Amino acid sequence: KTKLAEAIRYALGRMPKARAYLENGQLELDNNICERSIRPLTLGRKNYLFMGSEGGGKAAAIAYTLIETARMNRVDPEAWLTWVLAHIADHKINRIDELTPWNWQPR
Predict the structure, then answer these.
(1) Helix (H) or strand (E) holding 39
(2) Distance CA 102, CA 72 (A)
């Protein structure tokens, strides 16, 4: 019932989710990189609060996520998205990871 025991129980309860971060040094512990990259977008959110509709907002969120993921992987977002859109229709769904920015090589 001590504070130390409480802290240990808390840590052990979080261990299953934390294990991936402990075993893979490439995983980020936080999303600060993404938060900083979308800051300009959030500052102007009153200008495009609903993007015309809820569906438009969801589509914009997907587009921003794809663009920032490409940038985080030092990939030109326009070149990568152009390539993905040209190849995704004929690509097998079980190999979709081949289309990710970190697996893409410019020609």
Answers:
(1) helix 32-43
(2) 9
User: Distance between CA atoms of 5 and 105, rounded to whole angstroms?
Assistant: 50
pLDDT winner (highest mean) among 20-29, 33-42, 47-56, 75-84: 75-84
In the chain, the amino acid numbered 81 is: L
Written as six digits, the tokens of 93 are 């769904």
**CA separation, residue 51 to residues 17, 45, 48 (Å):** 35, 9, 5
User: Rounded to whole angstroms, how far apart are CA atoms 42 and 44?
Assistant: 5
By the 8 A CB rule, do 83 and 104 touch?
yes
DSSP letter, residue 53: S
- pLDDT for 40: 73
Q: Tell me if 101 sits within 8 A of 80, measured CB to CB.
A: yes
Amino acid symbol at 87: H
